[in-house]
Amino acid sequence: MSQGPPRSQFTQSVLAEDSARRQRRTRLLAGTAGLLALVLCTGGWMLWSATDDEADAQDAKAVQQAPDDIRDTVENVPRSPAGRLIVDYREKEFGKRRGADASVPAPGTWATDRTLVRGVGDQLKGFTFGTSEEAWSTDLGGPICDTTRHVTADGRTAVLVQERAEDGDKGDDEKSGKSKGEKDSDEKKGKKSGKPDKGDKGDKGKKSKGDKKGKGKGKGERGKKRKPARPEPPAPCDRLVFVDLDTGEKLWQAKLPEARTAFAPNTNVTMVRGTVTVAWGDGSVAYDMAGGERLWASTSASACGDAGFAGGRALLALRRCGDGDDRTYRVQKVDPRTGDPEWTYKVDRGIRNVYLVSSEPAVIAVAAGDGDDGGVTGLITLDDRGAYRSTVDMPEGRYMEDCSVPLFGTVETCHSVAVGGDQLFLATARKGSDANGIVSFDLTTGKAVRTFDSRGRGVMYPLEVSGGKLLAFRGSGNGVDPDAVVSLDPETGKERPFLLFGVPEGAGPVEPGRADVVVEGGRVFIAPKELRAAREGDEEGAAYGALGIEGA
């Protein structure tokens, strides 16, 4: 078992726990039919029938896709909603090794048909279903700066890494950490758009004068104090690693061109069919998935820079022009293979920030008003030609909104909104401590269509739209009813359980932006974005890393 990664400079403290109730309660996994019968008889869960639409309940089916397609699994309700534990990842000696207050960032949670993968510090850790032991662990060569939620149909994804300081002056082969047969694509030349690259000049850290060996006090030196050494600036987040999630193999690596200003959390990596793209405000670059060949790059200084991309079914680029009160934004649909824009939508002046919610259909979130504080004020929907369709207003305090506080990444960071078909779904703010709703909106009109009320059984928020149904997470509202992922039908308003389970106390609150909830292949995976040691109880000193559940 790996001892875990070193603490990263990107560690950020998790917010205070939601309430004393969440700290005290102990909830066991609903892993047997007997426990399921118990929870069905408590808290109103009898509203569902185990045999209702039984013909529909089947394992998830994957649409026929090419290997380089972004995975698009159609999730159907499992035959049994009773949850069975298949992954239980904990760092048992975390507190002993690092201290009670230590924490390690854990950006990235991915699942394939047989493996759960977590990004933790400067490592990727793989877990096969049915075991709590690591199947493999891959050292990335430095702390993770950003990840993408997208995975190819054959189980590959991309991770952006900051090289360790001690590796900064090594040769290219040493810095890339290549194993036999690995390709380092930073030397490859591909098709480019924009100003040609100038190479990697200046990427290597240089020692400041304060790092030179000083002379001792001699004649003429008495009484003079040596200036303290100035700290080296942090290394940029300029190493892109493409990995196989089932094996942990680093398939290829690339050093971003002229990415001296690429730092977390202002970098963004995403994927679309056949292409991996990275943006860091002052530049952007795209690589071919097959072998890491550079397709195009834009690294020249200009009035407008690429703030970030949204991937998935299409590639959207957010272009930020100017600064301060003169700042404006443009959203472009981009050809992934050439970098050429297919259409451009100019965001109105007076918008201080923009986030990319969905690439296809195109939906953006905007934050209007003065200053840099405050949240999203509206969602703008665009048609397939980039023309304005509608606006969904988001009055302050009415809906959950967390786009502006990501621990990692930029622009593709809205967690409490889901888009699919002709509708988008927003979670409302809490009503009291454990109740809220999810509202669906028509993309064409921007008007509300339907509200799914949690009826006091726990706060819920949307995860994804799959097979025409909305999958949503709902936490336990009373510590007795189970946590759940539920399936909501936008057409009928009907709600059905997808999986019922319990989240251990040590896993922390499962909320947008604070934990990953991934649904893949009929299974549910929950993982905190930061590992911290439990302070009390049977798990004192242990850090919870991930939970995996499937139907019993």
Descriptive overview:
With 552 residues, the protein is mainly beta. The protein contains 4 helices and 37 strands. It has a 5-stranded mixed sheet. Strands 3-37-35-34 form a 4-stranded antiparallel sheet, with no helix packed on it. Mean pLDDT is 80; it is low at 1-60 and 168-221.
List keywords for this structure.
mainly beta, 4 helices, 37 strands, 4-stranded antiparallel sheet, 552 residues, 5-stranded mixed sheet
Shape: globular
Strand order of the largest sheet: 9-10-12-13-11
Amino-to-carboxy terminus distance: 28 Å
Characterize the biggest β-sheet. Answer: 5 strands, mixed
Strand content: 35-45%
State mean pLDDT (0 to 100 scale): 80
Helix/strand-derived class? mainly beta
Counting H and I runs of at least 4 residues, what is the number of helices? 4
The amount of helix comes to under 10%
Give the uncertain stretches in residue-range form: 1-60, 168-221
- The count of DSSP E runs of length 2 or more, i.e. the number of strands, is 37
Q: What is Rg?
A: 24 Å
